[in-house]
Amino acid sequence: MPVTTPGPGPAEGAPAAGPSLRSGSLGTADIAFFVVSAAAPLTVMAGVAPLAILLGGIGAPVGYLLAGITLAVFAVGFTTMSRHVRSGGAFYAFVSRGLGRHIGIGAALLALIGYNGMEIGVYGLLGSATQDTTHALFGADVPWLPVSLAGLLLIGYGGYRSIDFGAKVLGVLLAAETGILALLAAGVLIKGGAHGLSLHSFTPGNVLVPGTAAVLAFAFAAFTGFESTVIYRREARDPARTVPRATYIAVAFLGLFYAFVVWTVIQAFGDAEVVEAAGTDPAGLFFSAITTYVGAWAADLMHVLIVTSVLASLLAFHNAINRYGLALAEEGILPKALARVHPRHGSPYVAGIAQTVLGAVVVLAFAAAGADPYGQLLLWVNTPGMLGLMALQLLAALAVPVYFRRVSHREGVLRTVVAPVVAAVLLSTAIVLVITHLDLFTGASAGVNTLLAAIVPAVFLAGLALAAWLRRRRPGIYARFASEPTEAGTGDATASQTAASRAGG
C-alpha cells in the first residue's frame, strides 16, 4: 500500500499528491540483493583483500569476521528502531527521532555526501576495471572516460525503471560474482590447497599482530552500504519482518563469505608463501589462484565479472541515493521536483536524473583535470563517502537508546541499550582505525588525506547551520522534519507521538 507522508502546507513546499513508490514490491531476498550488491563482493575480494593479506598476514580472515560481528551488534538496535521509526529517510530519521532534528538534518547531509561519494567515485573504478579487462582479454587499451559516461547512462536507466526490475538485475549479477568466488574456493578445497588445508589463520598468534588494525580498517570498508535495507521499507512486503531479516542476512553473508574466501586464497598459496605472493602481485593474486585451481578460462571470466560487479554496486547505490533524495524532497529540504515518482515504473525518476547529472559533472571534472580514474576519482571521492556512512552508523547507534528512553515500548534492554551502546563503542574504534590508516585507502599525501577526512565534519556542520536557518526561517519544514508517516496495516510497532514531537524540538 502506498505510503503517504504528511507534509507541510503549500507554502512550505510539500510535494503534490501523485504516483507513489511501489509498495509490496520487495521481499527479503530482493532487499538483501541490493545491500550485498552495493558491497561488490568480487571487487572487494580481488581488489582489496590481497592488501589485507599483505598487511595483516594469514590472520586477515578474522578481520572480516570481527567487522561482521561489530555490524551485527549494530544491526540489533538499528532493526529494532526500524519497527518504530517508519520514515523513508532511514539514517537521518533515526538520528532525528533520537538526537533531535538539528542533528538529524546534519545526518541528512552526511547521507547525501556519503551515498553520492560511494557511488560517483566508483565510476572511476568502472572505467579502470574495464580498461584492465579489455587489456587482459584482448590486449586493447580502452579510454576510461567513455566507459564511465556510458555507465552513468546505463545505471541511470536502471534507476528509472521499477525497483523490482533492479532487484532482478542485481539478483543475476550477484549470483554471477559470488559464483565465481565460490568456484575458486571449491577448486582450492578439492585440491587441498598448496600444502594441505590449515586453520592457522584463526589462531591468536596470527591474529594479534600489528597489521590487524589495518585489516580491520579494510574490513569495515568492505561492508559499506549494508544498512541501506531500511531505505527500501516503503517498497518492502511486510517491512517489520523483511527489513530486519534482510539486514541480518546481508551482514552474516558478507562477514562469513569474506572470511571464507580470504582463507581459501591463503590456502591456495600456503601460509608461508601467501604474503610474499600478495606483495609481488596484489592485483593478480586472485587471478593467479583461480588459474591454478580452476583454469585460465575462469580467470578470464573473473575479469569480466569484476566489471559486472562494479555495475551492480553502482545500481544498488544509485537506487539508495534516489530514495534519500525523494525522502528529503518530501521533507522540504531538497527541491520538491525531486519528490516526483514515475507514474508507470513507481521510481523516483527525477531524483535519479539529478543524481546522474551530478555524477556526470564530477566525472567530467576529474577527467578535465587529468585525474587517474582509480587513484583519484575512485579513492578521493569514495573516502569521504565511506567516512560519512560510518559516521552515520555511529550517530544511529547513539540515537537508539536515547529514543527508547523517550517512548513507551515493550522492547528488551538488550536491544535498546546494551547492543547499541556496544555498537557505538566498536564503531568509534572502527572510525579511528580507518582515519589513522587513511593513507592505505588513498595512497595520497598527508595534506590530501586531511582534506578528505575534513569533508565529513564540514558537511555535518553545514547541516547544523541549515537546521538553525530552517528553524528561524522555515519553521514549518523544521517542525515536520522526519515526522512519522501514516503506514497502516504494516504491523509495525507504533511509538508515542508525544515523545516523537519532543525529540529534537
From TrEMBL:
Q: Which GO terms describe its cellular component?
A: membrane
Biased composition range(s): Polar residues = 493-505
Which coarse location class applies to the principal site listed for this UniProt protein?
Answer: membrane
Against InterPro entries, the record matches this protein to: AA-permease/SLC12A_dom, APC_superfamily
Q: How does it sit in the membrane?
A: Multi-pass membrane protein
Boundaries of each Amino acid permease/ SLC12A domain copy? 35-474
Q: Where in the cell is it found?
A: Membrane
Q: Which UniProt keywords apply?
A: Membrane, Transmembrane, Transmembrane helix
Q: Which Pfam families match?
A: AA_permease
Q: Please list the GO biological process terms of this entry.
A: transmembrane transport
Annotated stretches, region: Disordered: 1-20, 486-505
Q: What is this protein called?
A: APC family permease
